[in-house]
């Protein structure tokens, strides 16, 4: 396994089909071992994400290393990879606690010493965001700074296509919602939302709010005042499709107040 190599010379960018650490460190001394390390272990096994995700493989690898008593820098490298691959602070704590009962208490202690350092800057909010991003089938994208003044809370935007139909994945942190707004059009127009992950809300003026779950489709007619956003206890993502029309424009209006929002159940 990778722990047999010198992990101090590995970087997080090397866990990919272009892995060269084996050849760089062993050269002609153990060319076959280097080939198996670079081309098979990292080039093939770690890349079989259609069988197991890199996150799953990180969990398996960390568990195997701790169980084997390998709690040196090799484990530190794979703990860093686990964090990069989406394993959260809460999850690594539970994983190592579980492993302790089967692999041994001292081994878990050694692993925890490194994990605490690696995840020390991970806040609860960051932890939840990383977990949600890992579970979503679409990227959450970058902070939606261009439209931040029209949102309460933090949102993220990942443009997915500008060909044929323009659509993006929009992600909201818990309680985040956009202002009341209207998609104006003289003909056609409006917007289509498709729930992707988490739980959210959609509401038209004068009507009860509608819960949005993964797979929920929301048709927003042109010239209708409305808002949408996340539930109070959940991150939320939806695809947003712009419906073609004539004389299309967006009008941003007042925020959805806490009093309005807190009435939702």
Topology, element by element:
Layout: H1 21-26, H2 31-45, H3 54-67, H4 73-84, H5 89-103, H6 105-118, H7 124-135, E1 142-143, E2 151-152, E3 155-161, E4 167-172, E5 177-178, E6 181-184, E7 187-188, E8 191-198, E9 200-204, E10 210-212, E11 217-220, E12 226-230, E13 236-242, E14 245-246, E15 249-252, H8 258-262
Antiparallel strand pairs: 1-3, 2-5, 3-4, 4-13, 6-15, 7-14, 8-11, 8-13, 9-10, 9-12
Helix pairs in contact: 3-4, 3-5, 4-6, 5-6
Tally of individual domains:
2
Strand order of the largest sheet: 1-3-4-13-8-11
Shape: elongated
The topology string of helices and strands comes to: HHHHHHHEEEEEEEEEEEEEEEH
How many runs of DSSP E, i.e. beta strands? 15
Which band does the percent of strand residues land in? 15-25%
- Looking at CATH, the homologous superfamily of the largest domain is AhpD-like
Helix count, DSSP H or I runs of 4 or more residues: 8
| CATH-assigned fold name of the largest domain | AhpD-like
What would you call the structural class?
alpha+beta
CA-based gyration radius: 24 Å
Summarize the main sheet: 6 strands, antiparallel
The CATH level-2 architecture of the largest domain is identified as: Up-down Bundle
Account of the protein in words:
- The protein is of the alpha+beta class and 265 residues long.
- The chain is built from 8 helices and 15 strands.
- The strands form 5 sheets. The chain has a 6-stranded antiparallel beta sheet, with no helix packed on it.
- A hairpin with a 5-residue loop joins strand 3 and strand 4.
- Helix 5 runs antiparallel to helix 6.
């Amino acid at each position: 396994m990778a722990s047999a190599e010198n992990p101090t010379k590995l970087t997080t960018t090397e866990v990919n089909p272009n892995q060269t650490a084996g050849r760089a460190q062993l050269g002609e001394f153990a060319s076959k071992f280097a080939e198996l390390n670079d081309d098979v272990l990292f080039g093939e096994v770690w890349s079989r994400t259609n069988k197991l995700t890199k996150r799953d493989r990180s969990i398996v690898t960390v568990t195997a290393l701790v169980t084997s008593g390998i709690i040196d820098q090799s484990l530190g490298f794979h703990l860093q990879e686990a964090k990069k691959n989406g394993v959260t602070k809460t999850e690594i704590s539970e994983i190592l606690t579980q492993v302790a009962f089967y692999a041994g208490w001292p081994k878990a202690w050694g692993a925890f010493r490194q994990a605490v350092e690696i995840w020390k800057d991970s806040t609860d909010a960051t932890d939840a965001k990383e977990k949600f991003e890992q579970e979503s089938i679409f990227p959450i994208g970058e902070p939606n700074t261009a439209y931040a003044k029209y949102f309460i809370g933090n949102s993220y935007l990942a443009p997915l296509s500008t060909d044929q139909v323009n659509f993006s994945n929009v992600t909201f942190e818990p309680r985040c919602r956009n202002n009341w707004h209207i998609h104006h059009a003289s003909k056609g127009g409006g917007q289509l939302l498709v729930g992707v992950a988490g739980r959210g809300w959609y509401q038209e003026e004068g009507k009860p709010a509608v819960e949005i779950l993964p797979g929920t489709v929301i048709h927003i007619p042109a010239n209708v005042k409305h808002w949408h956003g996340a539930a109070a206890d959940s991150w939320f993502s939806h695809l947003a499709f712009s419906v073609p029309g004539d004389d299309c424009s967006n009008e941003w209006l007042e925020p959805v107040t806490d009093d309005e929002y807190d009435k939702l159940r």
